[in-house]
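Researcher: Before we compare anything, I want clean individual predictions. No alignment, no superposition, just each chain on its own. First chain goes here; please echo the sequence and then give the structure tokens.
Model: Echoing the first chain and its structure:
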Amino acid sequence: MVTPSRSSRSIDWPLVLLYLLLVGLGWVAVYAASYSPEAPANPLASLGFSQLMAFNWFKQLLWMGTAAVLIVVLLVVDYKAYDTLAYILYFAMLGLLLVTLVIARPIAGSRSWLEFGPVRLQPAEFAKFTTALAASRFMASINLRQQNWRDQAVLAGLTLVPVALILASNETGQALVFAALLLAYFREGMSPLILLLLAAGGVILLLALLVPKLWLVGGFTVVLAVAFLLNAKLWRHHLILSLSTWAAVIGMVFGVNFFFNHVLQPHQRQRIEMLIDPGKDPLGKGWNVTQSKIALGSGGWLGKGFLNGTQTKFDFVPEQSTDFIFCTVGEEWGWAGSTLVIGLYMALLWRILLVAERQKSVFGRTYGYCVASVLFVHFTVNLGMTMGLMPVVGIPLPFFSYGGSSLWSFTILLFALLALDAHRKQDLLR
């Protein structure tokens, strides 16, 4: 039994410090994004609780306080519970996602929020944690390096079931984040062929939107024909596989139109169209991204200064406290501040990988890589959509974006890892 004092000494304090810095800077950004010049100079002293609840910065303070309570619980609970209860938590979350899909009222086109009076929670955020636990527990019981397709099918099922429920609630962005777990699976021995096939499929789908289909089909056919001419072994040993691949590519190319026009929602089609042609409708569909890039570019080297951002102050960028919070950083803190924030994220991810690699159990190591992968994808996609490099899929910037569900979920992901890491030496005795 590890005493609390010894356990506290085992906590990775550099990782805790990075968390505190990001959460603190995130609150400053939320305050700036939701600041109103008409507000009282000292609102905490002059306004009542109900009036303060109208401000995102105040509600974020409350979420930060509850996150601190969560941290204590996560570090005090028996670390073995994360492994033991992994499947129970996973299936409980599936049930919660299903309940949410049935009873939640539509908000901004999706049924993904449970409401408890003034408080709203999004179970999809927490499903990343329970899925990471379940996948880590499963991979600790098998050896993916043996390339057992049955085990890989079970792992795929563990990942795709919550994805299907989240997609059914019309939360495409949250569902896409689960693809991050593939990076952790790859670390534990999943065949790189799976990653290559998925990447190749994504490239083909993107090219099908950008390049005339006949050109794309003709080019791929020519490449395959030349490969056959240069390597006679392809005819004898890989003819069926090569022709099957050719047929699959042709089907994907011509299936893009059906998927784009009949599967995607109108707002999802608009996001892809604006990514392909950002200048198509800058005052309509492209308003968010256009104003976001203006805000980022206007900050210059050192920014306009705290609370001096015109794009921020006059609400030119919608959702600036949540999905587009990085606009505030770029406009008010400039290139220097943006680089500092990006550097903190890079340090956080690097530290998580170091913590993951020093785990004594497959469960702990895999879970650590799941945490790093989820945070990496959130960070990359959020900055990419803010800069107009990726479609606007509506996922928050970890620890920065306003919102209780996102702050709680990222806090749980990180501090469950810290709890496992603090007791990693005990895994040798189990």
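Researcher: Okay. Second chain, same rules.
Model: Second chain and its structure:
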Amino acid sequence: MKIFSATTFILILIGALMLAGVLWRESAHKLGPIENLNSMQGADAPLFLPKDGEPRHRLHQFNAWQLATIPHAHRFDAPMGTENGGLTFNAQKFWKMNDEQGGHHTGDDLDGLGGMDSDLGDPVFAAADGLVVYSGEPSPGWGKVLILAHRSADRRWLQSMYAGLLRIDVPMGKLVGRGQRIGLVGTANGDDPAHLHFELRESRGVEIGSAYSMFAMNRLDPEETLAELRGAPADRLSSSLLPIALDKKGMWNTLEIEGAEKLGELQE
């Protein structure tokens, strides 16, 4: 009985020491300042998200106002090759297992027919009418990354991600039209041969994540989803009207008023 009591005492002591160690480490951990927690409705950042001046691309949920600015996208097209996706091939398909990277591929790697760096600097086009919700370089391995947010015809909140870019041609917060050039094919800072890593996701927030994962989470098969949301016959080619509608100098926005001295003043 004495042996059992001593053993029990030792186990309790070890457990208490482990618990004390955990509590000490937690108390020593310093949390950075947070963006806005005036109320649960008014919080514009997740709890305890550090405010370091950088875009909150790792974990950020859109608020109601941001969701309202995301345009409806009634048609989706391939983002590379031409405005309608010609002259490209899928070098690494969605969810293909890559043992070297230790996970499944989370998007499609679109490449020019010549392979290697033959498509370096080729244009990348917006897959659908959308809003730029991320534009930057989250880490050296990703290179330059652009994310557009869309609301599909079936009322899903979708995002298209364009990674490894050589150059980004559109800033944060800009509305872009399907088929509009948004960047150039790059090499992710020389880590890979030139190609476009293209992802489609269903999400109401922005998180960059990894190009390889064991869990699909909110990722969609880009090829299948584009076909599903095509919104037009495969052989029908047309451009989006959104860039034309947003062009203040475009003929559709020109107002001819008798006696106006400067048409430009009316367009401001």
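Researcher: What stands out in the second chain?
Model: Residues 31-59, 255-268 have pLDDT under 50 and may be disordered. Additionally, DSSP finds five helices and 16 strands in the chain.
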